[in-house]
Design brief:
By secondary structure, the protein is α+β, with helices and mostly antiparallel strands. The protein has helices at 18-35, 61-67, 74-94, 98-117, 122-143, 150-161, 164-177, 238-249, 265-276, 293-307, 350-365, 374-385, 398-421, 429-436, 446-458, 461-469, 475-483, 501-504, 510-528, and strands at 13-15, 45-47, 56-58, 182-188, 193-198, 200-207, 221-235, 255-263, 283-289, 311-312, 329-336, 340-346, 388-394, 423-425, 489-492, 497-500, 507-509, 532-534.
Length: 547
């Protein structure tokens, strides 16, 4: 009985060779689909899942993989879901590289499967793939160059987004703000892109009353040279804020920036009245945080470090009514609107700020990329170091704004990775040079050599796929030509010629290039090692990553 004649309804347990055959079929189906999205001439995939919805045009590998919940043949679905997980993992960690991961993984599995079919011992072939991967990764790191200028950063961004203007703006922002930059993407209706730099932190919160607004055009309350008071709790009564107002009234500069978990009732009315009473010569910006509890307390603690204020609170044993002058912080500029609070150029102890920054940097450098707290750590570090920016993505149509914003988010992840590990030539060329660095003579035995040869061949696949997607004939000839040049030269698919990588903007983040290889190898080795597939009678559909 041939493989294709097997009835999947009667096979709750599928063993070799059937398990490997069907797993690879599913793996290949998804890989072939995602390979079409590789490169500047990538194709689009139409997703049409519901007759009530419009067809969706997709060109991003991670999004396409995310939309595929299950393929019809359950035996093949195992392979498709394995690759889907790898692609989504790349997206989460570096924001790009899903298509390259799929191409390398498929080709590695193809080559390794042939090696095993020819008599290679699977575990030893797997060892060879892993050994070759280590050599290839070392070669990628050796050819990496630091991204120490705006041009290099913009080139990496353009490789991700395909949008020159957006890429140059992001290159500028990361060049100015550094590798720990925290950049927020905001969408608005306009025909242009813009950026804003903040010399301090931004906290999610809101202004307590429109009667405190000083800039009517933006509906913001803005004050210069403010004293800062921080309260971890709710303020409701007038006598809770009265002593604070008296204390501010005794100062030469009568400007106050008050932040609490909640401000309402008589406390709110008292603050608004004091601000509006011109005889007091008192200016107030008062806001509340969106977070309460431990999350809100952590936010206030960062504000305390930045401004030099002391966090008070009933649960901390200090009501606001007991505040003293030395517990007030300072900030050069305070802003608040209906969505955010801003503390710019805080007056905190520079030594204390530096210590906290170093502590966060160490924590970040030792945190896994998929850790759920990594974005929060980046945000805290950016606030304290003044590396905060806002990218305003403008477009007339909502669809265009959404697409640009998504591209920007991917590029932000890629640029952060680039500043950490540098960049390499793009267009699949880095993998060609990495393949060239694999030393087959270092294999311990013939079967291990087979595995090393499998990956050596597989690393040529991204370059060949890029040219095929562009309709360029004889990609192997172009590959031979580019290998005769230095490792800073790439093949320009649009212009159909050899050019310097950095000048043409054809570069990739070293971290993305390295991780795509490592992730692909991990998936291929895992697929090669499967002996038995167990199909549950009523499987749960994997919807973990669907919108």
């Amino acid at each position: 009985m041939g493989l294709k004649s097997l009835s999947m309804n009667n096979h709750g347990v599928v063993s070799r060779p059937e398990s490997a055959y069907f797993l690879k079929q599913g793996f290949d189906q998804l890989a072939n689909l995602l390979a079409l999205t590789l490169g500047p001439t990538k194709g689009s995939i139409v997703n049409f899942s519901n007759t009530k919805e419009r067809p969706e045009m997709l060109s991003d590998a991670a999004t396409i993989a995310r939309r595929i919940i299950q393929i019809p043949d359950r035996r093949q679905d195992v392979g498709a879901m394995l690759l889907r997980q790898l692609v989504w993992q790349m997206h989460q960690q570096v924001g790009d590289g899903g298509a390259i991961t799929a191409v390398i993984a498929k080709q590695t599995l193809d080559e390794a499967t042939r090696m095993v079919a020819a008599g290679g011992i699977a575990p030893l072939v797997q060892n060879g793939i892993k050994k070759a991967s280590e050599q290839a990764v070392a070669a990628i790191k050796d050819m990496s160059k630091p991204a120490n200028n705006e041009m290099a950063l913009a080139a990496v961004a353009e490789a991700v987004t395909g949008h020159q203007k957006l890429s140059w703006i992001l290159g500028e922002m990361f060049d100015i703000l550094g590798k720990y930059a925290f950049i927020t993407v905001e969408k608005y209706m306009a025909s242009y892109l813009e950026r804003i730099y903040l010399e301090g932190g931004r906290w999610a919160g809101k202004l307590i009353s429109p009667y405190l607004v000083t800039a009517t055009a933006t509906q913001k309350a803005i004050q210069q040279d403010c004293y800062v008071a921080l309260y971890a709790g709710d303020l409701n009564e007038s006598d809770e804020v009265g002593p604070l107002l008296s204390l501010i009234h005794q100062q030469k500069k009568r400007n106050l920036f008050l932040i609490a978990f909640n401000i309402s009732g008589e406390a709110l009315n008292t603050l608004v009245s004091a601000h509006q009473n011109k005889k007091n010569n008192l200016s107030i910006v008062a806001g509340t945080l969106n977070l309460g509890g431990q999350g809100g307390l952590r936010e206030l603690e960062d504000l305390a470090i930045l401004t030099g204020a002391t966090v008070l609170g009933d649960e901390l044993g200090r009501p606001l009514s007991t505040i003293k002058a030395n517990e007030l912080g300072r900030v050069k500029r305070a802003e608040a609107d209906k969505e955010n609070l801003y503390a710019i150029q805080g007056g905190g102890d520079p030594k204390r700020i530096r210590e906290e920054i170093l502590s966060l940097q160490t924590l970040l450098d030792n945190t896994m990329p998929d850790d759920e707290d990594i974005d929060l750590m980046h945000q805290r570090l950016a606030r304290l170091s003044g590396s905060v920016g806002i990218l305003q993505v403008g477009a007339i149509s909502k669809t265009e704004r959404d697409v640009l914003a998504q591209k920007a988010e991917h590029a932000i992840q890629a640029l952060s990775a680039t500043l950490m590990e540098g960049y390499v030539p793009g267009g699949g060329v880095a993998y060609l040079h990495a393949a060239d660095a694999i030393d087959l003579d270092s294999a311990s035995n013939p079967d291990e050599r087979m595995g090393m040869l499998a990956l050596k061949r597989a690393l040529k696949a991204p370059f060949i796929q890029l040219l095929k997607n562009a309709g360029i004939s004889a990609p192997e000839v172009k590959m031979a030509d580019v290998m005769e040049m230095d490792d800073g030269t790439v093949y320009h698919i649009i212009e159909e010629g050899f050019v310097p990588a950095i000048e043409a903007g054809i570069v990739d983040a070293t971290k993305m290039t390295r991780m795509a290889l490592e992730t692909a190898v991990s998936g291929a080795v895992m697929a090669l090692s499967v002996d038995v597939t167990i199909l549950k009678k009523k499987p749960r559909t994997n919807k973990d990553y669907t919108p």
